[in-house]
Design goal:
The protein is mainly β. It has one helix spanning about 120-125, and strands at about 1-5, 10-15, 20-25, 30-35, 35-45, 60, 65-75, 80-90, 95-100, 105-110, 130-135, 140-155, 165-175, 180-185, 190-195. The strands form two sheets. An eight-stranded antiparallel barrel has the order 7-8-9-10-15-14-13-12. A two-stranded antiparallel ribbon has the order 1-2. A hairpin with a 3-residue loop joins strand 13 and strand 14. It is globular and about 50 Å long. The structure holds zinc ion. Zinc ion binds near residues 6, 9, 24 and 26.
């Protein structure tokens, strides 16, 4: 962890350096790390208090690999919003821990080449529930399609989409506990693959203390 200076407000900001972006906790500027300097990309909203049991700094395990929560993006759609936590593993691997309608998934970004048929963005709107996608050698079917806005963020991130019209987000279910998300924006698609997890399987440490819990 290194201390940087926020280029917008001058506050000290600590970054692990494992991911390119950080949010200043004083002025909410999204900052892109360039060597020792931080470039101010724009301002993000503050994450509203949503009584999540997780918080920045919470640690846990996924398949016996230890990780820490280093950032959070709050995503919003027409009927609600949810958290996606940027997860930094001890071996520097990055994952995303997301809440999906009361369940939890751990996802890892894949090269778009893993998507065997790459739908172009102007065809993304033609994707329907139950359509089949092959990602690497795994079969997935579309379970949910929605337009999503990146709403707020904190901590360290791999990226943030300011796009006013939002991104088209498609959730897919695979065999057993398999889960994937495709995020379409302009002419690109980001591919995330992983699985459902049990909250307790992560053996979290440093959970937020919520009144009325425990
Ligand atoms: Zn700042």
């Amino acid at each position: 962890v290194k201390t940087y200076t926020c280029s917008a407000c001058g506050a000290g900001i600590q970054l692990s350096g494992a991911v390119p972006y950080g949010v200043c906790s004083f002025c909410q500027s999204l900052l892109l790390r360039r060597d020792l300097l931080l470039e101010n990309i724009g301002r993000v909203a503050e994450v509203p208090d949503d009584f999540s049991p997780l918080q920045l700094g919470t640690t846990g395990y996924f398949e016996n690999q230890q990780f820490a929560l280093v950032g959070r993006v709050r995503k919003r759609w027409d009927e609600g919003s949810w958290n996606e936590w940027c997860v930094l593993f001890d071996d520097q691997r990055i994952g995303w821990l997301a809440e999906v309608q009361g369940d939890w998934v751990m996802l890892f970004e894949q090269s778009r080449d893993t998507l065997r048929t790459i739908p172009v963005a102007d065809r993304a709107d033609a994707i329907n529930v139950d359509d089949t996608f092959w990602i690497s050698n795994k079969r997935f079917s579309v379970s949910d399609i929605k337009r999503v806005h990146y709403n707020a963020a904190e901590g360290e991130l791999t990226g943030f989409q300011f796009c006013r019209e939002g991104v088209l987000s498609i959730d897919l279910r695979g065999e057993k506990l398999g889960f994937a998300t495709l995020e379409f924006q302009e002419n690109d698609v980001a591919v995330f693959v992983g699985r459902f997890i049990e909250f307790d399987e992560c053996r979290f440490v440093g959970l937020r203390e919520l009144e009325g819990w425990g």
